[in-house]
Specification:
13 helices; Helicase, Ruva Protein, domain 3; 2 domains; alpha/beta; five-stranded parallel β-sheet; about 280 residues
């Protein structure tokens, strides 16, 4: 890990870690559960069938991380992922972004861009484009309508691309509205990512510690229980609490995280503080 300040470097050295524990990094190995394996299977099937899939879940549950991990596993000779993370794009912006990712220069007219889109997809041959829209619940109605219209490219005997929409738990309901129902009726699979169960939190903590190079017990049992309760099993919240508790333990020159360290973290991490209603640290 680069650009770590000297204090964190000292903490990492004292613990024998190669990176800051519970800190998100590129290409991090996914924590697998039966539920995430089902999600990956459905993503793979949707891509192979060139169909439309919606992946939903609460904030921080790991939707984007799961899809990113799956994308890295795709065979480049079979699939061409086109991921858009800018949910504030206009309808024309969505089309231009896709063209740019296909190596095309967008024009100023929609008809021109649609023609270039068809040509670009045609040049891919047997390679299947996989369009991924992250934070899809934030797309404007006009942008979502453009996405629906793009599905018109799938009118030939065989669909030409797969569409994966990633959004919060309210996205499916919003797509049921009459103004978006034409897109809703094209969704072949809807899969919701669930938070971790309390019994899975300890295994998740061990997994993330191993990612940082730590292969030993680092949490007292009571500390794990506190994190499981305060986080509701949401991985992002688990990471925030655990990283803050690790920093507190390191500051006290301890090599194990105790309930005391977690208690400090719960007072510092706003989403955890809201859950347990403890006063903020001064």
């Amino acid at each position: 890990m680069t650009n770590v300040d000297s204090t964190l470097n000292d903490y990492m050295h004292a613990w024998g870690a190669r990176s800051v524990p519970f800190h998100d990094e590129d290409k991090q190995q996914l924590f697998e559960t039966e539920h995430t394996r089902q999600a990956v299977d459905r993503l793979q099937q949707s891509a192979a069938l060139r169909s439309v899939m919606l992946l939903s879940g609460d904030n921080g549950v790991g939707k984007s991380a799961l899809v990113a991990s799956w994308v890295r596993s795709l065979e480049p000779k079979a699939y061409r992922p086109l991921t858009i993370t800018q949910a504030s794009l206009s309808a024309s912006g969505v089309l231009c972004a896709l063209l740019a990712k296909l190596g095309q220069v967008p024009g100023y007219q929609r008809a021109v861009n649609i023609s270039r889109m068809e040509d670009a997809i045609g040049h891919l041959g047997s390679v299947i484009p996989v369009i991924i829209l992250d934070e899809a619940q934030n797309y404007t109605a006009s942008a979502m309508e453009e996405v629906r219209l793009l599905l018109g490219l799938n009118l030939p005997s065989q669909p030409v691309f797969c569409l994966i929409m990633i959004g919060d738990n309210y996205l499916l309901d919003s797509l049921r509205l009459q103004s978006r129902r034409a897109l809703y009726t094209r969704i072949a699979v809807s899969h919701q990512i669930q938070p971790l169960q309390p019994a899975q939190v300890e295994a998740y903590l061990i997994h993330r510690l191993k990612q940082a190079g730590l292969d030993r017990p680092c949490f007292e049992d009571a500390a794990v229980e506190m994190i499981a309760s305060a986080s509701d099993g949401v991985p992002r919240t688990i990471n925030l609490i655990s990283r803050t508790a690790w920093i507190e333990a390191s500051r006290e020159q301890q090599n194990k995280i105790t309930p005391k360290h977690v208690d400090v973290a719960l007072r510092l991490v706003p989403v955890a503080r809201d859950k347990i209603a403890v006063p903020a640290a001064i």
